[in-house]
């Protein structure tokens, strides 16, 4: 197949592409960043967030490279198949002394001999020769021939590299991460509802039934208008939060910590969670019309640099504004008044209608994989009911917004953003990688694995404090180092210098990405 198919489909607008990428990565995770900076410290947070942003961009673009490598193998298979067909003897039919070569088909009945057939023309029942089980590439599983190149997704990459197990690994990670995002949305909504009216659990039983109805919708078009309004509400709310952060900055007398290494695993999980659009990279790239697709890479890099800069500014300003009193959801620090209530209402509205959008691919995937009849609406509605109830049960067990973010980020998001891109790239490009590329793939796999272990353990110790008595050696090392710097503070002048250089630091990262027009 050619990557030039469906030329009339996709967006040609650079502005629309920028907006799609921006919206895909600005989510609820940003609201937990000020608390993450409180746990890690300002300098450590800026360095780690910049590094995670830089590495995430490189890793996500590896996924795009993997897609085109698979397309290259498919084209190679087709060309080799055509050449092979010219050298093979297919089904012969003989009539009136003339022998005609048909296409590469085999006779339905094995053992049928047509080479000496003499008589009237006979039509044989034919069926296509079976396709090879793997590509001509380095031990790569092939996709079905009716799979359009533009439809190749993350799960297909997993299948090509690791077979059925690879597809299940990717799909399971996507399902769990999407459910985790939905749980975070619910926690945010419930935490921002008035607690003097009803308690957390009581609000939950009121919030869930409408979500069941919204999740039961079979077409996302029904939610399109709500999604558009939700995007505008998000932007408006974040701007107001920024305003309150800077307005409250001058009233804080406590200097923020510069570093706190025992908060590194927690911050790393939060930072990776914030790049929750990693699983959408192929969909975003495919949304661009082929004639403009060469612009995707530089636009994606520029947009993610802007997103990373906003993450850092939002996290630092929120933490500096409220100091040690920074809560795990920054909106809980906002004072009483009309504008704070409006901000919370906008964000709650946005996340409430984002919930069914995030749950939609999960429901479709599980219906296809596990339901006897995926088209049966009753079975599908029961599945969707179970999914919504599952998210309700999870947040009752893990009611902490930041801890849930760190847990999801350290497990599924780390796997999707770091480990699998490096592994798939190493498999698909086997034999043609430079030493630099190979070491970067290995670095992604190693960093993701270590980060997942440390981050998951840190999140679990926050959930179950009794586990802290069995702290593993890596965390003990960070605690020992942290004892020397945990009391380090920043003067206002130093802090202002750090904030002023943040954008220039991100700009240098942009230069390191080697963007080409």
Instruction: Report the span from N to C terminus.
Output: 27 Å
Total helices: the number is: 16
Strand order of the biggest β-sheet:
1-2
Computed CA radius of gyration, to the nearest angstrom = 27 Å
Mean pLDDT rating: 76
- Work out the helicity level: 55-70%
**Structural class by helix and strand composition:** mainly alpha
Uncertain parts: 1-8, 85-137, 473-490
- One letter per element, helices H and strands E, the order comes to HHHEEEEHHHHHHHHHHHHH
| Largest sheet descriptor | 2 strands, antiparallel
Shape assignment: globular
Question: What is the number of strand segments?
Answer: 4
Short description:
The chain has 517 residues and is an all-alpha fold.
Keyphrases for this structure?
single chain; 517 residues; mainly alpha; two-stranded antiparallel sheet; 3% strand; disordered N terminus
Structure notes:
By secondary structure, the protein is mainly alpha-helical. It is built from 16 helices and 4 strands. It has helices at 14-25, 33-40, 42-87, 154-162, 164-192, 200-215, 224-249, 264-274, 281-286, 296-322, 338-370, 377-397, 401-428, 435-463, 473-482, 492-512; strands spanning 92-95, 98-101, 105-107, 126-128. Strand 1 and strand 2 form a beta hairpin.
Write the layout of secondary structure elements.
Blueprint: H1 14-25, H2 33-40, H3 42-87, E1 92-95, E2 98-101, E3 105-107, E4 126-128, H4 154-162, H5 164-192, H6 200-215, H7 224-249, H8 264-274, H9 281-286, H10 296-322, H11 338-370, H12 377-397, H13 401-428, H14 435-463, H15 473-482, H16 492-512
Antiparallel strand pairs: 1-2, 3-4
């Amino acid at each position: 197949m050619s990557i030039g198919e469906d030329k009339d489909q996709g967006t040609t607008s650079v502005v629309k592409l920028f907006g799609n990428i921006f919206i895909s990565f600005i989510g609820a995770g940003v609201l937990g960043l000020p608390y993450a900076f409180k746990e890690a410290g300002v300098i450590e947070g800026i360095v780690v967030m910049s590094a995670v942003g830089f590495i995430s961009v490189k890793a996500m673009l590896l996924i795009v490279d993997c897609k085109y490598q698979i397309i290259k193998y498919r084209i190679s298979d087709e060309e080799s198949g055509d050449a092979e067909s010219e050298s093979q003897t297919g089904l012969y039919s003989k009539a009136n002394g003339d022998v005609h070569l048909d296409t590469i088909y085999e006779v339905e009945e094995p053992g049928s001999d047509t080479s000496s057939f003499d008589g009237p023309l006979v039509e044989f029942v034919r069926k296509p020769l079976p396709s090879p089980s793997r590509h001509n590439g380095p031990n790569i599983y092939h996709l079905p021939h009716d799979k359009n190149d533009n439809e190749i997704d993350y799960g297909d990459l997993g299948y090509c590299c690791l077979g059925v197990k690879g597809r299940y690994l990717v799909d399971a990670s996507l399902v769990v991460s999407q459910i985790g995002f939905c749980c975070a949305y619910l926690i945010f909504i419930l935490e921002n509802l008035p607690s003097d009216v009803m308690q957390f659990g009581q609000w939950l039983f009121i919030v869930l039934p409408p979500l069941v109805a919204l999740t039961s919708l079979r077409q996302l078009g029904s939610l399109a208008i709500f999604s558009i309004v939700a995007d505008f509400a998000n932007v408006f709310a974040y701007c107001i939060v920024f305003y309150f952060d800077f307005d409250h900055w001058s009233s804080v007398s406590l200097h923020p910590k510069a570093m706190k290494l025992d908060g590194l695993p927690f911050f790393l999980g939060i930072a990776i969670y914030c790049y929750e659009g990693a699983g959408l990279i192929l969909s975003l790239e495919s949304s661009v019309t082929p004639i403009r697709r060469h612009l995707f890479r530089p636009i994606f890099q520029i947009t993610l640099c802007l997103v990373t800069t906003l993450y850092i500014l939002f996290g630092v300003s929120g933490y500096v504004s409220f100091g040690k009193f920074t809560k795990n959801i920054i909106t809980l620090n906002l004072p009483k008044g009309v504008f704070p209530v409006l901000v919370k209402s906008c964000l709650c509205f946005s996340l409430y209608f984002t919930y069914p959008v995030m749950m939609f691919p999960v429901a479709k995937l599980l219906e296809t994989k596990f339901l006897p009849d995926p088209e049966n609406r009753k079975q599908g509605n029961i599945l969707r009911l179970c999914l919504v109830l599952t998210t309700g049960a999870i947040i009752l067990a893990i009611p902490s917004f930041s801890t849930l973010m760190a847990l999801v980020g350290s497990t599924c998001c780390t796997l999707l953003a770091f480990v699998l891109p490096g592994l798939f790239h190493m498999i698909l490009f086997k034999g043609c990688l430079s030493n630099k590329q190979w070491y970067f793939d290995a670095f992604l796999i190693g960093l993701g694995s270590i980060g997942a272990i440390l981050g998951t353990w840190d999140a679990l110790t926050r959930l179950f404090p009794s586990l802290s008595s069995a702290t593993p050696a890596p965390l003990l090392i960070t605690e020992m180092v942290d004892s020397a710097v945990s009391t380090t503070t920043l003067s206002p002048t130093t802090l202002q210098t750090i904030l002023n250089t943040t954008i220039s630091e991100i700009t240098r990262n942009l230069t390191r990405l080697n963007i080409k027009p």
